[in-house]
Amino acid sequence: MKSLSQLLSSIPPSATLAVNDKAKALKAAGRDVISLAGGDPDFDTPVPIVDAAIAALRNGDTHYPPSRGTIALREAVAAKCASEYGLELDPVRQILISPGAKFLIYAVMAALTNPGDEIIIFEPYWVSYVPIVKLVGGKPVTITLSAEDNFQIRADVLARHITPRTKAILVNSPNNPTGRVLTTAEAEVIRQAALAHDLYVISDEIYEKLIYEGRHINLASLPGMAERTITVNGHSKAYAMTGWRLGWAAGPADVIGLAAKLQSQSVTSAAAFTMTAGVVALHEVEEDVAAMRRAYKARRDFMVQALNALPGVACDMPQGAFYLFVRFPGLGTDSMQIANRLLEEADIAATPGIAFGQAGEGHVRFSYATSMHDLERAVERIGRLMG
Ligand SMILES: Cc1ncc(COP(=O)(O)O)c(C=O)c1O
After folding, report:
1. Whose CA is nearest to atom 6 of ligand 1?
2. Predicted confidence (pLDDT) per residue in 157-198, tens digit
């Protein structure tokens, strides 16, 4: 047989797969494995959104929608950007609706990147960024942030990684996996670098609605940034809609136009009835979102307090998302080994920090998008493991 795609073959399998496969095997063998490894809210999608989708299906909302998304949803996104960020956007030319934020990151990257263009990514990073940059022919340039420095983005370190080939900086706040929220000082570091070197910024703000302390900064709304920033966001996390596949991007018309071209020649569009329901999500479920946020905060507070009370465990207080980035000095610094011991000796599935780049080594990521009951059981088991 002729050889398959060298590009796709060169992308290594995710470092999380080994632990996930082992967790599945243990579960299949009857072990009561508690999974703290996922990024999927344990809540059901709020009822008004589900009802809107069912009504849309009954009303015949089952045909090809406009490729860039229904005008109603693009207008709802534009209205949100105006009221929450003070950003004035043309819903027709500057907003793209896609089946999920992940595809949008891919489409936006494809729109920005020529072969060899460098994209700056801060470590620890969400696992899909590096493969996506490689898939569009770009060169990921990772900046290893330091755990000792609380993973802060510093101007001098950023400056050292900018070259004439740098095209864009990818930013993610609130952050997966650390739960950190970008500070005003860090946002200014990114803004200054982008303006000084004429760079694009891709701002992945998918955890925006899950902030427990501090304030969300929409990078596009900072002075001079609207023309060079593409905001990527979506329905998955805030509205517990991961399986619906719905996300949006907002930015300069030419970038959005090219990303829309990729969409129209590949996946065509998001599904029609999900977009109808997606409008309801943006307008009518604020109280449901607030209730989920309160629940996540209670879980976070419980977990951080309970983990830090155990010997050989250390966990900083994250301000957002639904992840804890935990160190186990009592078990060493090899994150694969720590994740394996948690799985084999405590029946807890967690994601090894190395999956998020070198900066993640020494940590494991716990998701608290799972019930308080399971979190309490997990802490008990970790307590027994740590003796
Ligand atoms: C940082 C980050 N960006 C994007 C996504 C993708 O979201 P979606 O479900 O909209 O594709 C995720 C999902 O885990 C994420 O953690």
Report:
1. 102
2. 999 999 999 999 999 999 999 999 999 999 999 999 999 999
Task: Tell me the CA–centroid distance for residue 344 and ligand 1, in Å.
Answer: 28
What is the number of the ligand 1 atom nearest to the C-alpha of 102?
11
Return the DSSP state at 320: B
Mean pLDDT of 211-215: 95
Whole-number Å distance between alpha carbons of 97 and 82 = 17
Q: What single DSSP character describes residue 223? A: T
Where do the structural domains in the chain lie, given as residue ranges?
A: 6-44+287-386, 47-284
Q: What is the pLDDT of residues 51-102, one digit of tens each?
A: 999 999 999 999 999 999 999 999 999 999 999 999 999 999 999 999 999 9
What topology does CATH give the domain 6-44+287-386?
Aspartate Aminotransferase, domain 1 (3.90.1150)
| Extended beta strands in 319-376, E state | 323-327, 348-349, 351-352, 363-367
Q: State the distance from the centre of ligand 1 to the C-alpha of 291, rounded, in angstroms.
A: 21
Residue 229 DSSP SS3? strand
Distance CA 1, CA 352 (A): 37
Rounded to two decimals, what is the model's pTM?
0.97
pLDDT at position 304 is 98
Could you identify the atom of ligand 1 that is nearest to the CA of residue 172? 1
Phi, psi torsion values for 318, nearest 5 degrees: -80, 155
